[in-house]
């Protein structure tokens, strides 16, 4: 990092230099900026897009002038494209000035991207972000560099709550319910997690745009996970390295496993089945028109079920058009399901979204499973079904990440800027971005359920639907 004395010297250089940056363009000119689809995959991505320069500057960032030009381009895209002309109450001009010195001081591509990412995070917007070449390429092929485990905090313990079946973690026999005692030399014991309960959100966080959970009893767990992420944070596009996990299992001595993260490619997928009680379970891992036929066939297979559980846990969203298509499969009549918010110059305009039902919609009782990883199109779906169909929301609060990105605007060097160009309000006037949807039935995982291989949220949802069916029968 750059010290205070260096910053003072840089400030003098900045004042003495003619860095009178001309605004790149107004909205009309920005329309011609190179852009690529916001959702993948896309063809034509060469290997150079995944390069990693941790200790040097590429040609695109070689001089202070070039770096300031890139900063200006990223800043201006947000200035002209963000759906909120008030920028979430942030002084966007002041933000640009705040990060000029870190941009000038950058000694590597990684430091340059860290400065740009920090600048954009000031907006506190879940989808507006600067992405590195590697992040952009991975997003387009539905890939994430990871070891394949999902973590949560339960009773001041850092627990593995999910393991990707085809991942380094699965191959190392990491199991749901394992307590993560340490990662490398970082201890995540009860003392660490207790001290993290009141940890404030700062610009040092990987995802400082995340919203506080809707339920008060989830807030401390959220802060604890934030502390874990902060402890493990690395520079943008850092090369993968092996991690040593120390795990504690029920009634066993501690075990250690070594995991080397790898690009986990997870294309859109859907599963469906009907339980012995006649309750259908439909699970989507993302919203995509690529598997619309698969979802449609799955809905046909469960059409005779008594009720349906839509499992959106771990689903971070995806195609907006797929959200509209899915919701219409459950509507009894045309309904206004939300209001879209757009930018018109310095003003914001609104437009209602009316969705017509499918030819043969599923009109039996519904429940939607959500957790902290349910975001964007998942939250739109859960909110629409809650308000329009009185669906039960079961599990944990959602992400509170509900805005839409149309395109990824290309930066020199193959990185990009993703900016939220559409915001949303629910049909009942509820703000969605920054305000996670709370479950109607709170059913977080427990250590006992995880180790027993049971799904508490699903069991709770099925029981609640059966109770609703019994009540409906009694009323009739």
What's the gist of this structure?
The protein has 476 residues and is α+β, with helices and mostly antiparallel strands. Helices cover 32% and strands 23% of the residues.
Descriptive notes:
The protein is an alpha+beta fold. The protein folds into 3 domains: 4-133, no CATH class; 143-265, Pdz3 Domain, CATH 2.30.42.10; 270-475, Alpha-Beta Complex (2-enoyl-CoA Hydratase, Chain A, domain 1), CATH 3.90.226.10. Helices cover 32% and strands 23% of the residues. It is built from 15 helices and 20 strands. The protein has helices at 4-16, 27-30, 64-81, 92-98, 100-105, 109-121, 133-140, 168-171, 190-195, 216-232, 292-301, 320-328, 377-389, 447-452, 456-475, and strands spanning 35-37, 129-131, 143-146, 149-154, 157-163, 179-183, 186-187, 243-248, 255-259, 262-265, 270-274, 279-284, 307-311, 335-344, 347-355, 366-370, 392-395, 403-410, 416-426, 441-442. The strands form 5 sheets. Strands 1, 2, 14, 15, 18 and 19 form a 6-stranded antiparallel beta sheet that branches. Strands 11-12-13-16-17-20 form a 6-stranded mixed beta sheet, with helices on both faces. Helix 13 links the parallel strand 16 (366-370) and strand 17 (392-395). Helix 3 (64-81) packs parallel to helix 6. The chain is globular and about 75 Å long. The relative contact order is 0.13.
